[in-house]
Amino acid sequence: MSFQKQLQTLRKSRGLSQEKLAEVLGISRQAVAKWEVGQSYPDIAKLIALSEFFKVSIDELVNDYEENCHLSIKRNEVNFEEEGIIDFLIKAKKSTYAAAGEETKASRPNSHDLQYVEGDLKYIDTYLGGEKFLGEEALWKKDVPFWSMNYAGRVLSDEFSGSFLKEALRLVPKDNPYRGPIMYQRGQYKYHCIINGDFKWFQGYEEIYFNDNKTYECYFHGGEVK
């Protein structure tokens, strides 16, 4: 079922008019009407709000996910230099936290720091906390910073699996080299990731469900540093 049909079905099952749903979300009725006819698509914040309001996971809300994502997510258009940088970033991500890589010396009291270097390119991931965490990944070329991503997340239930999260993060795709793939599932665990923007300026959200229970979420954003 497409997003617009799913939204109509969920709205009507609650006995809500477009106007009432718009009021709940703090938007115009015209915005809801456009979503339901496929003329536009909600941004990340509104998609999360819809998911929480209707008590459904994002992939249930957006079953035809990749088709619908094209309405709001611009695919990366990168030049030759950025292609090499993205390849490096993916290698770095797969070799550090996602691979349970060895930490380097803490840069701040009680921080967790991981580093990957290749030629004149350097990647550093540093974060604070555990069940509730905040951190930053950044890239340097010849010790000059040029790209960064901040993230903040939390564990929501005891069913959370750190090994499953790392497994999903090792599948980071080249067309969206930020966290994990759009969707990934193993057994009762399901990972979802949505992104808006491109490599130079983006925001995103990832979540993990265990059966029908959301057990983890993380917001992230970043882009080019000048």
What structural keywords apply?
eight-stranded antiparallel sheet; 31% helix; 434 Repressor (Amino-terminal Domain); 226 residues; alpha+beta; single chain
Describe the structure.
With 226 residues, this protein is α+β, with helices and mostly antiparallel strands. It folds into 2 domains: 3-69, 434 Repressor (Amino-terminal Domain) (Orthogonal Bundle); 80-224, no CATH class. The protein is 31% helix and 33% strand. The protein has 8 helices and 8 strands, in the order αααααααββββαββββ. The chain has helices at residues 3-13, 18-25, 29-36, 44-54, 58-61, 65-69, 80-95, 162-169, and strands at 112-118, 121-129, 132-141, 144-155, 183-186, 189-198, 201-210, 213-224. An 8-stranded antiparallel sheet has the order 1-2-3-4-8-7-6-5, with helices on one face. Strand 5 (183-186) and strand 6 (189-198) form a beta hairpin. Mean pLDDT is 88; it is low at 65-78.
Number of strand elements? 8
What are the secondary-structure elements, in order, as H or E? HHHHHHHEEEEHEEEE
Give Rg in angstroms: 19 Å
Instruction: Count the DSSP helices.
Output: 8
